[in-house]
Design goal:
The protein is α/β, with parallel strands linked by helices. The protein is built from ten helices and nine strands. α5 (169-179) links the parallel β5 (154-160) and β6. The N and C termini lie far apart (43 Å).
């Protein structure tokens, strides 16, 4: 039985098997993950239109496919956060630019996207030109826990499946608070731990996901809510969208199953890096987290008043 201690310390601890890695080493590991897995994501998950490195939102009422579900996630976050067309947005952990480009294209928002990967920033910039929104969107390499922006620079901070990479989620929230204008909005969408005691098989699935996606730890939704409160955020709301995310978890599992022979052969031939193989294995392991309810998937919205 593996127990993740539900105390203050979790925030500064990595749960991964290489738990002794420092914050800088963890960041370097995440950069390597995104640099080396760029093509895998485009091949097996997203496309050049949605550029999405996140789970989709599958509404029961509509027959979404993967592409639509990925785009739909942007719409849901935008609406829940109450972002307005003129708002200046910081896309904190922007990946290859999917949400930034979507906001500029659909609503004309000026967006700054930041990522720790220089490669991602270059790719995102390239895609921005392809989508014709280069006048509205720009990308920079920066740490979302310590950005180069002045206080009160943004109307909204958007973190879609990115804040999980922070060793201490409070560091991310402190910086989001600093760069937000008074009245500004924060939207965070991520996975949260639902339980703290795991059997061997469940723990393997959790650790495979953390290692494969270069995430040091996950907190529970209550812990995250408390961190938001401690930071001073108001109007904190949490929406559990696990059911609307299940479609993507299933899709990822099916793709991973289908690619199993290709993964095995190319791994045997030495054509897959360690990061790529670890990323592949998450495709299978993440399904356990969903089906056994080890994690939930939520959208938090909050305001700096
Ligand atoms: N939000 C994007 C990408 C999600 S992947 C999307 O939905 O498509 C997570 C992103 O967070 C990656 O771009 C990664 O580089 C970024 N990231 C991880 N740690 C970061 C940090 N400390 N500072 C800034 N970005 C970070």
């Amino acid at each position: 039985m593996y127990t993740v201690e539900p105390n203050q310390d979790y925030r500064d601890q990595s749960l991964r098997h290489d738990a002794e890695l420092s914050s800088d080493e963890l960041k370097a590991d995440a950069t390597k993950h995104y640099d080396e897995c760029y093509r895998d994501y485009l091949f097996a998950w997203c496309n050049r239109e949605n550029l999405a490195l996140h789970y989709g939102y599958w509404d029961e009422d509509q027959p979404y496919d993967q592409h639509q579900a990925l785009l739909n996630k942007n719409r849901v976050l935008y609406e829940k956060a109450g972002i307005q067309p003129g708002d200046k947005v910081l896309d904190a952990g922007c990946g290859i630019g999917g949400s930034s480009i979507w906001m500029a294209k659909q609503h004309g928002n000026p967006v700054t996207g930041i990522t720790i990967s220089a490669k991602q920033a270059d790719y995102a910039q390239e895609h921005t030109r392809h989508h014709g929104v280069q006048d509205l969107v720009n990308f920079e390499v920066a740490d979302f826990c310590a950005t180069p922006f002045a206080d009160a620079s943004f109307d909204a901070v958007w973190a879609l499946e990115s804040s999980c990479h922070a060793l201490n989620k409070g560091d991310f929230l402190r910086e989001a608070w600093r760069v937000l204008k008074p009245g500004g909005r924060l939207v965070v969408c991520d996975g949260f731990l639902l339980q703290r005691r795991f059997d061997e098989r469940q723990w393997q699935a959790v650790v495979t996901c953390l290692n494969g996606w270069a995430v040091p730890n996950l907190c529970s939704r209550d812990e995250f809510g408390q961190l938001l409160q401690q930071q001073g955020f108001q109007s904190i709301q949490c929406h559990d969208i696990t059911p609307q995310t299940q479609g993507s978890a299933d899709y990822m599992y099916k793709v991973a199953k289908r690619l199993q022979p290709v993964q095995k052969i190319s791994q045997w031939l030495g054509l897959r890096t360690k990061a790529q193989t670890a990323n592949y294995l998450v495709g299978l392991a993440q399904h356990v987290l969903f089906t056994e309810r080890l994690t939930e998937y939520c959208i938090f919205t909050a305001r700096k008043v």
